[in-house]
Amino acid sequence: MNLAHIQAAAGLNSPIRHQLFIGGRFVDAADGRTLATLNPHDNSVIAEVAMAGVADVERAVDAAEAAFPAWARMAAADRGRILLRLAELIESQTEELARLESLDTGHPLKDCRFLDVPRTAGCFRYFGGMADKFQGDVVPVEAGFLNYLLREPVGVVGQIVPWNFPLMFTSWKMAPALAAGNTVVMKPAEITPLTALKIAELMSEAGMPDGVVNIVPGMGAIAGQAIADHPRIAKIAFTGSTATGRRIVQASAGNLKKVQLELGGKGANIVFDDANLIAAVNGSAWAIFHNQGQACIAGSRLMLHERIADEFLERFAKLARSIRLGNPLDPSTEMGPLTSGQHRDRVLSYVDVARSEGGELIAGGRSPADPALSRGCYVEPTIVRARSAQDRIAQEEVFGPFVTVLTFKDDDEALRIANGTDYGLGSGLWTGNLQRAHRFAREMHAGMVWINSYKRVNPGSPFGGVGQSGYGREMGFDAMREYTQVKSVWVNVDAQIPPWYPR
Ligand code: NAD
User: Fold this and answer.
1) 179 CB under 6 A from ligand 1?
2) Which of 96, 101, 190, 262 is the catalytic position?
3) Between 20 and 30 A from 105 (CA), which of 161, 164, 467, 500?
4) Ligand 1 centre distance from Cα of residue 268 (Å)
5) Cβ distance 461 to 478 under 8 Å?
6) Residues 6 or more apart from 112 whose CB is under 8 A from it?
7) What is the pLDDT of residue 385?
8) Catalytic residue at 296?
């Protein structure tokens, strides 16, 4: 099938963009190389996408650097207006973007329509509105002086995005950076570049000046590393694995880049014996199975009070087994394939790890038997009870529809287990006890805590982790702080300064 046929079969109305976006134009890679992006439903090729090399990153940095002075000096309200226009355009293209994201990532169309696309538009809208509300400060210093603080953009920003939420993370990264007056060189993950390129097209339509945004799909070890190493990139924002995060930090030492890292997680989702069991079962299924479990904030450690564990697990397993797997473009599908075959194999390898550790397989643990799904990257919703909180399945991020169940006797034990990993991103608890809820919120080693819910996000609410989950925050005012630096300006208004060296 050629590109036009694939486009039509997926219900897309506009051409699939497959070139790099540099200086406001879609261009081929300098060396002409491409990389196939696959449909995880059947592993067919969707498109051959231009693959950026070092020379292309160089071109993108040149374009971003040239665009920076005018963009940074533009009235903040005018920058905001472009982002607000972009948000409108994204909403007007909801179906197109939803289908494209679903095709490239395997996210169910329903998720893309009702979560990924609206959240992307919402993020650009939030930061579009923020652009002229984020302001400096005045410090009450000694008499006779005015000391004011400017929040200035840092310059050219490098952004590296993973494959689990390619569209949404494009907005999380770009919206605050652009609102604050930076220009951007962004690399989507090599396996999911399509929606970021569509956003580039909409950026131009929204009136974004050429060169402010540059998008360079390519391999992590080449294009990603070139961004991390680049001496004219002032800051790098990265979402992905902890191992790559460490490499980014090392590369940043060259020109002392500002670094912001959003890495993995092993979220504790704790259900106490006084919780609303029905709500907790539903919320815990959402916590782990939404997006096929490919979420850094997934509730992948399900911790149950031993008094309710059996009843909870019976209901939870029944719900997990009933989740409808299928072609993500079918609107009735509730769970799609994982985003790549390699990742499916990695997730399934943890079923072997679980067996070798003496874990009890409660549900799933394999690819579905349905022949219609046999060529895709599917894994059934999988529930495994671990023998110990120290087991690998209770410590390592699986990043799939794979939940590890642990039980506890009392609050202190629950807290010990919850805090017993190196990660610290999202965690949650279900309880009717207010004091316990707040105690856990305070004492859990995490960047985000959900009480009687799980995995809520909002562009106004800071998102990020502690420990091996990284540092820095996306979203909200914190994101604007991340993408600016403070300049302290001292003005002698009417200070009489006696000479220090009187002569
Ligand atoms: P990864 O860290 O390899 O890739 C994330 C991004 O970094 C991609 O765009 C990739 O091209 C880029 N990259 C890779 N090597 C690079 C380098 N040397 N320099 C600069 N950029 C580089 O992650 P992955 O291989 O896609 O997935 C592996 C694991 O990472 C997953 O199983 C999961 O545990 C974790 N992960 C976490 C998140 C999250 O949201 N926190 C997202 C995706 C993956």
Assistant:
1) no
2) 262
3) 467
4) 22
5) no
6) 97, 98, 99, 101, 102, 167
7) 98
8) yes
Helix (H) or strand (E) holding 352: helix 341-356
Q: Is the dihedral of CA 255, 259, 264, 265 positive or negative?
A: positive
Say what the pLDDT of residue 3 is.
Answer: 85
Q: How far is CA 4 from CA 13, 225, 444, 448, in A?
A: 10, 33, 51, 43
pLDDT at 250: 97
Contact 187, 233 (CB under 8 A): no
Contact 313, 306 (CB under 8 A): no
CA distances from 346 to 160, 271, 323, 379 (A): 22, 28, 22, 11
Q: What pLDDT does residue 1 have?
A: 67
pLDDT tens per residue across span 404-447: 999 999 999 999 999 999 999 999 999 999 999 999 999 999 99
DSSP SS3 for 114: helix
**What is the pTM assigned to this prediction?**
0.97
Q: What six digits make up the tokens of 365?
A: 């643990």
CB burial of 338-353 (b: ≥16 within 10 Å; e: otherwise) equals bbbeebbeebbebbee
Examine the residue annotation and report whether 142 is marked as an active-site residue of this protein.
no
Residue 321: predicted pLDDT: 98
Q: Is 229 in the pocket of ligand 1 (CB under 6 A)?
A: no
Enumerate residue ranges in the chain where pLDDT < 70.
1
